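hey can u check if this looks right to u? its 511 residues, i copy pasted from the old doc so theres a chance i mangled smth
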Amino acid sequence: MTKPPARHKGLVLATLCATMFMAMLDNVIVNNALPRIGQQLHSGVSGLQWVVEGYSLVYAALLLTGGTVGDRYGRRRIFLTGLAVFTAGSAAAALSATTGTLIAARMFQGLGAALLTPGSLSILRHVFTDEKERARAVGLWSGVSALGLAVGPVLGGPIVDAFGWAAVFWINVPIGAGGLLLAARVLPEFAARTQRLDLPGQALSALGFGALVYALIEGPGRGWTDTRVLTLAAVATLALPALVVVEARSTDPMLDLRFFRDRVLTGAAVSGFMISFGMFGAAFFLPLLMQDVMGWSPSDAGLAGLPMTAMIVVAAPLSSALTSRHGPRLPLVAGLALCAAALGALSLYGAHARYPQYVWVLLAMGLGMGMTFAPVSITIMQRVDPARAGMASATLNTLREIGGVIGVAVLGAVLSSRLTATLTEALHRLGAPADLDRPFPAAPDGAAALPDPVHDAVNAAFVDALHVALRCGSAALAAAALVVALLLRRPRGATPPPAARPTPQPQAAHR
């Protein structure tokens, strides 16, 4: 590796922080734009799900491959390639005139993020060789990444109100272009090393998860007995077990299954997967409820999430201290239980609920989410050899992202199925045509033209379906809390867990 001059270290850090801020921001800022996208591009529930899922699915499927490709062909080269792809995908998304082209552009963004993300922390570690200096740099990098997640919902609403939904993608273009020019100048070159690409594992991963998510999203609309849905469900059923077999036998696996022989690491993986499953699945639908049913503006819907964001920030150091003193079991189980209770409680509030009535639910949700982030990172540092820590981090990050993908798909399937059944029955009673392709009451050519009784029926059906989905997510998180409590139960006579290292490896949170 060619080390950069000392004066360039600050520029390297600024470049990596800016690009990670952009990637994290893009994960969450799009949620507040979904109702407007649905209105202007005439997207149904499944179309809006794919706007989110297209990015996440490609990112999750290619994240580990992005790390392997960077090792083989050079971190700097792959980082620059990923940044260019992500920026181009953002411009293409902003210019999209149909739901299909927007989904394709979001998938292209996911490819860029998968190439970009693994190299960022690796470059940072190699540039900042002094331990204290590196700790400060990693802390700043991690903080800026979290800032992108925190300000995304707050920025997204006003941007959509002022400039339209395309602006949430245009905002990435100047940041990406500036970052690309700066990165090309200041990032050091790394010597590539020989590493075999796990092509069979990659192919099976993309095929299995892609088929599974497609079947879950399209099943409610097409019908669960539709030939295409059944075919893809069968493909997923064959491909995912085959992935496990191939990865178990591979000498350079994309997904290192040996980590799951350690029950503590397995508990951390289950926690990361299930938190993403429940919470990001719910986060997909809440803006639709607030804007389409409650009539909130995108700005108001974004600001409504500030209490949850604030509690995530508060909970992070708390969970780190609890993990250092008591091990990961207490914060992980408590976080999962809090999130389960919050989702269940949220299902008690309908379209006419006032914000002060349920703001406590958002606070509990943020506290629960924040309680789970640091323990997973600390667990990796304690349980995995340093030489394998990067692979472990990437594996658990992939499971987190896939958890979010599956969460939106599964909870979306529950919501869509319930919505279809309830709305069909309600419209039949009213003698109205069951136009289920636009279940969102805010669609300008849908809700505005509907008679009041039909409009109210659509609202009521959506709220009822959302409540069922939230309760399913709550039950899944409660079950996960029990599983993690059992996995992390300390054997009798075991010594207390060692103190956590002062600077755990950060986990890149997505969505």
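The first helix runs from residue 6 to 29.
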